[in-house]
Amino acid sequence: MRFQILLLCFVAIVGYASAQRGCSNICPAVYQPVCARVGRTLRTFSNNCALSAYNCSNRPGAVFVRNGAC
Fold it and tell me: Which SMART domains does this entry report, sorted A to Z (predicted)?
């Protein structure tokens, strides 16, 4: 039983690590702000790429609200 729990934890950690590597955090340095909702708060991201990068590594992610700063 203990072995099965350890195996399950190992698989979960490996899956999480491989999912994180799929995220590209390289975005152009172009300021075209977008407003998104993170939980109950509004947050301004520098551009759509920054919003996508945030959503790739954070679950649940931010939800696009509108173009422009919040």
Answer: KAZAL
